[in-house]
What does this fold into?
Amino acid sequence: MKILYFAWLRERIGKAEETITFPPGTETAGAAMAHLASLGEEYAYAFENPSIIRIAVDRKHVPHDAPLGEARELAFFPPMTGG
Amino acid sequence: MKILYFAWLRERIGKAEETITFPPGTETAGAAMAHLASLGEEYAYAFENPSIIRIAVDRKHVPHDAPLGEARELAFFPPMTGG
Amino acid sequence: MVAPVVRVQAEPFDAAEESRLITAGRADIGAVVTFTGLCRSEGGSLAALELEHYPGMAEDELVRVSTEAIARWPLQAVTVIHRYGKIAPGEPIVLVVTASAHRRAAFESADFLMDYLKTRAPFWKKEHFASGAEGGWVAAKTEDDRAAERW
Amino acid sequence: MVAPVVRVQAEPFDAAEESRLITAGRADIGAVVTFTGLCRSEGGSLAALELEHYPGMAEDELVRVSTEAIARWPLQAVTVIHRYGKIAPGEPIVLVVTASAHRRAAFESADFLMDYLKTRAPFWKKEHFASGAEGGWVAAKTEDDRAAERW
It folds into this structure.
């Protein structure tokens, strides 16, 4: 699955995007985030406070317990500060 | 005293301004309006519904019971519809 | 203390230019809100609006409401322009521009200024109909009074 | 049904021109509200803001909030433009323009759009300081969330 990171998540992980195959049983956006957090120190740092991370599935905001379903693009980012 | 009329008050009275000497004892803006209403048919028509008339003394909104004091300019007009 | 820019004029105004004058050469403004009120044709039935005003008092009242807005919100600039005379459908009648470091102050003060000037500034609208039939004076709306009472 | 005009771009925008495009050639609009959000220098300490965005989703979200505004208020036009990339103090970041027959709808919907896009459109601001010291990501404000909850 295509994974995107923005703002300080991107900086902490050190990349803007990558392709990840999640282990079987990874059914929600939050579970996908937990898996990513286990991939190394930089990921653990990026996701150290999971409750504040916003997630988008196929470019739509979703809650952490949203099913991944047939998602093609999964994005993680901090609370937005546009406008 | 200089008297000004605006909008349909001006049209009903048939003039935009005039100078009036009020009878002794005319102490409030409302009393001045009552005197004007007695000056003829066109005045009676203009002031037929006194409660809706707005009054300004020296270019400031005042209530009907405001004292005339040393006023130099007294204006009568309908509720405003600018903006 | 910010001094409001207030003009009562027959000529059209340039909302963009007024806004530019406010922001030009400074970097402390975070939010600019402009409100432009325009003459509507009412489905083609209206030929023009004629705006009568009380010269002198009109300017005074616009300065008073602007000064009140400056006292109530942390504003960096306020411009209020109101036209008088004949105004054709599609033409602008009134402009309010407010600038502040923060968006809430800019929004609220522009909204307040429009509500207040509608019920306090001495202007009166008369309609001229496209049919040639004699037009009448626009009646004040109680909803405008209620809007002004919000503040 | 009104179609919103939404653009996400690096280039500056011309608020006046966007407003002119909305009103040109029509006489049914009574009120136009524009909101311009600008980059503040914070007393000279800020060299620039860098705006990162999520291409594709940023446009989608701006269309979604605009469409929601059109569903909630009787609007005749909505334009939303949001810039990304480096933006110097004094430069505009975001523009919202709403047009309606009536002023309340124009004011409220512009206010709503700004509140909503601040908490939903995927943009992030990073500060670059004039001192050369490394800047940080701007933290989201809880007051922005509260503002969005008003609607």
Observations:
- The radius of gyration of chain C is 16 Å.
